[in-house]
Amino acid sequence: MCVRPPAAELLGRLKPDALAYLGDAVFEVAVRERLMWPPLKMKSLNSKTFSYVSAEGQHQILEKVTADFGLTEEELDWLRRGRNASGRGPRRLDPKIYRAASAFETLVGYLYYVDQTRLEQLLQFSLDAAEEVIRVDGEAASSSSSDSDTAEQ
Question: Which of 7, 24, 27, 66 has its CA 20 to 30 A from that of 18?
């Protein structure tokens, strides 16, 4: 295992897209962990996970985060850096959505290095928001799963 330099040095040397790369992984693990209970069939688990970690899902989450989470000036600055550092993204995607998702991932990567407590708060808020605003297969993600969707124990 390599020795990691202090956060200040890392943030001075890493580009926002590198933080987004890390933030993407951190967010996906948090989503997968949250969706493990109650147990779902694998197809539903994959579908929900994808809807949360997709650029469109992260865009919706970021809208809720910026409106209601109470971001600090430093966090807003890292969102701006992440948004500005990202490219156009895939052709199928509106560049605005891609940049918003990159901004969200950059913020998650930044908080991973500088403030684990704040990261946990952001992830908790984001996952709660995802359950409110993201739709899966035409239904609200927060609606209760049908018996056929819940995995048998």
Answer: 66
